[in-house]
Specification:
M3 family metallopeptidase, 30 helices, Neurolysin/TOP_dom2, metalloprotease, five-stranded mixed β-sheet, single chain, MetalloPept_cat_dom_sf, Pept_M3A_M3B_dom, Neurolysin, domain 3
Length: 722
């Protein structure tokens, strides 16, 4: 297995992010014979190593080798990580101390090969800590995260290594490197500079201290939030769940039984809380459930995260200034499409004003029904009443059409119709899995095997909340063809055995969203893994655009059939949904965008705040946050920002990506066929396959013939375009 990119030193080594590809969209790669020569020259530099630890060995079995989940324990993984660091250290030393003049093969390619055993161990580590969790895994994460951070810093701060990396990049033209090789070399040089390779000895020592402290803080933050989410509101009497759809009642009862409780348990996760806030008739209980959810990490107890956040933003500010930037946001945005905080803020504020205006209209409609002021725990409940009144649309009518397994099958149909992918479920036991709930599929592209897809759909104690995509192995060809091992991870509440798992339309769109990330990886044609990860504000684009196909007629007719009648959703019901598509967009936009704006505000302060709750309130007051809505992610539980650097000063990226997403969907719709094969083929080859081999803005212009139109986003949300 080969790394997608070298893990640079510093905090956030365990970040799972980015999408892979390359080789198409106008950039020619090296020939197969040229790649073989490069790989041979790179391997000749690296010392022959025979790992002792079981979890460092090359993966064996079918499909090019698969993760040995059945052998993973915290103790074995600890042994593997510590030995893997030593093996990587020897490889890096061999590259840095090579007496031969630096070349692309003996430096750039060798760096991509270095540390493969450790990379295998870290893949296992990241999945187990995110999907299984628990005291043993928390203890291991607390122990090894700072060690990994220091090991990364050791690589970044190796001056002999950096001089070789810089020499390859600076001499790319003289050496006759092609476009992809030049991009690999120059991006590596620039990344090393951004991460402190050019600092003096004192600066490197200080940056190392900051990075280790950040890593420790990220670990504490994540563990505290998971602990606060591993809770519930117990409702002992059936009157307390009045109004909930039968499927939600059943799931809540099952959640209670699994915890040896009597009654109904509303778990402290969004997939359990949102349905209760939407349908639960008991206003007092809605407030109780809402407060428990929005106050995760903010209860003044052992799981309170405010002090940890203050430490993180202070350390980030110190790091940015040490590296020559005014603030963390400027440092983070160097390698993005937006480039600057000002550009991101301009887009956000263009959308913020019409979103707030729409909220005022939504609240007025709800007050007319409620007869009282709307509180945050009332919003979803009365919005549902307005939806039914305005559009004769009841969400309870929709849920029977969205049975989880049928939605999954519909997503597979979309992938085959658009791109030629097929997914065949493997029999249990064919390959190891990390939990019995995980289902594995063999993936083919027009009949050619491309990898495996692991679906992990259910919530469990210890698993982090939300939904995400991960890769265990990404595609590349620089050292032989590598297939893709990808996963989707959700937190749906499991129904009792034999009962259908009914999810909401929003949940179905989330499933298609995460599946869009997977399709990005399975489409990959990347040559060099260093060009696998796209910019943060591009990476959500392929996932967001795939949400639109949920309600396409072929998906509805073939897969999303009523669980009792077996009939597809009637067109009149689809028409009601489409008529209400812009309904409640004030709420949806403001809840998300307030989180993104506060994120950017937090990371552009001249002096980092110390009172996080006070800062959050002041920041929201400055933009006029409607009192009836709370941020989608309040700072005390904002995993995107404080479990790594991944989305810090980058939560705006969903909106940035949505501009391209809305414009792309308009392209399909305007063609008269949302499965238009010509557009789908060009989207796959230009936008999905090439990864970061070319500038993503240029790629979009090649695909669409122009820059993305912001007006398309405003139209999708039902806001004025001028």
């Amino acid at each position: 297995m080969h790394r997608r990119h070298l893990l640079l030193g510093g905090a956030g080594l365990m970040m799972v992010a980015g999408c892979a590809s390359a080789g198409m969209g106008g950039v020619s790669g090296p020939s197969a014979s040229g790649l073989a020569e490069e790989a041979a020259a790179a391997r000749a530099v690296l010392p022959r190593q025979s790992p002792r630890a079981e979890l460092l060995q090359e993966w064996t079995g079918p499909y090019g080798g698969v993760p040995p989940w059945d052998k993973v324990t915290p103790a074995k993984l600890r042994e593997a990580i510590l030995e893997g660091i030593e093996l990587q250290r020897a490889e890096i030393a061999a590259i840095a101390d090579n007496p031969d003049a630096p070349t692309f093969a003996n430096t750039s390619v060798a760096m991509m090969m270095a540390g493969e055993p450790l990379d295998r161990a870290l893949t296992l580590f990241g999945v187990m800590t995110s999907n299984i969790g628990g005291e043993e895994w928390d203890a291991l994460e607390t122990e090894v995260s700072p060690v990994l951070s220091a090991a990364g810093d050791e690589i970044t701060f190796n001056d002999k290594l950096f001089q070789r990396i810089r020499a390859v990049a600076d001499g790319a033209g003289t050496a006759g490197l092609n476009a992809q090789q030049t991009r690999v070399a120059t991006r590596a040089r620039d990344a090393y500079v951004r991460n402190g390779a050019a600092l003096d000895a004192a600066g490197k020592a200080e940056l190392g201290r900051i990075n280790t402290a950040l890593t420790n803080a990220f670990t504490r933050f994540g563990q505290k939030v998971v602990a606060d989410e591993n809770s519930w509101t117990l409702i002992p009497n059936e009157a307390g769940v009045a109004g909930l759809p039968a499927s939600n009642k059943t799931a809540a009862a099952a959640a209670a039984r699994s915890r040896n409780l009597q009654g109904w348990a509303i778990l402290n996760t969004r997939s359990s809380v949102d349905p209760f806030l939407t349908f639960g008739d008991d206003r007092g209980l809605r407030e109780t459930v809402w407060r428990k959810f929005v106050n995760r990490g903010d209860n003044g107890d052992a799981n309170d995260t405010n002090a940890t956040i203050a430490e993180i933003v202070k350390l980030r500010d110190q790091r940015a200034k040490l590296l020559g930037f005014r603030n963390h946001a400027e440092w983070r945005m160097q390698d993005t499409m937006a480039k600057t905080p000002a550009a991101a803020n301009d887009l956000m504020m263009r959308v913020w004003a019409p979103a707030k205006a729409r909220v005022a209209e939504e609240v007025a409609d709800m007050k007319a029904i409620a007869g009282h002021d709307i509180e945050p725990w009332d919003y979803l409940y009365y919005a549902e009443k307005v939806r039914k009144q305005k559009y004769d649309l009841d969400q309870n009518q929709l849920k029977p059409y969205f049975e989880l397994h049928n939605v999954r099958a519909g997503s597979f149909y979309m992938a085959e119709r658009l791109y030629g992918f097929t997914f065949e479920r493997l029999a249990p036991g064919t390959v190891p899995v990390f939990h019995e709930d995980v289902v594995v599929y063999a993936v083919k592209d027009h009949g050619e095997p491309v990898g495996l897809f692991y679906a992990d759909d259910y919530a469990r104690p210890g698993k982090r909340s939300g939904a995400w995509m991960n890769t265990y192995r990404a595609h590349s060809t620089y050292d032989g063809e590598e297939n893709v091992l990808g996963s989707n991870n959700n937190n749906f509440v499991k129904a009792p055995d034999g009962d259908p798992v009914l999810i909401s339309l929003d949940d179905a769109e989330t499933l298609f969203h995460e599946f869009g990330h997977a399709l990005h990886y399975f489409s990959s044609q990347v040559v060099y893994p260093a060009l696998g990860n796209t910019p943060r504000d591009f990476v959500e684009y392929p996932s967001q655009v795939h949400e639109h196909w949920v309600l396409s007629r072929p998906v509805l007719d073939g897969y999303l059939k009523h669980v009792e009648t077996g009939q597809p959703m009637p067109q009149e019901l689809v028409a009601k949904i489409e008529a209400s598509n812009t309904f409640n967009q004030g709420y949806a936009t403001v809840s998300y965008l307030s989180s993104a704006i506060v994120d950017m505000d937090l990371h552009t302060q001249a002096t980092p705040p110390t009172d996080i709750d006070a800062f959050e309130k002041a920041s929201l007051a400055r933009i006029g946050m409607p009192r009836e809505i709370v941020m989608r992610h309040r700072l005390p539980q904002f995993n995107h920002l404080f479990t790594s650097d991944a989305y810090s000063a980058g939560y705006y990226s969903y909106l940035w990506s949505e501009v391209m997403d809305a414009d792309t969907w308009a392209y399909f719709e305007d063609s008269g066929d949302v499965f238009n094969p010509d557009i789908a083929g060009r989207f796959k080859s230009i936008m999905l396959a090439p990864g970061n081999t070319t500038d993503r803005g240029e790629a979009y212009r090649q695909f669409r013939g122009r820059d993305p139109d912001v007006a398309a986003l405003l139209r999708v949300r039902g806001f004025p375009t001028s």
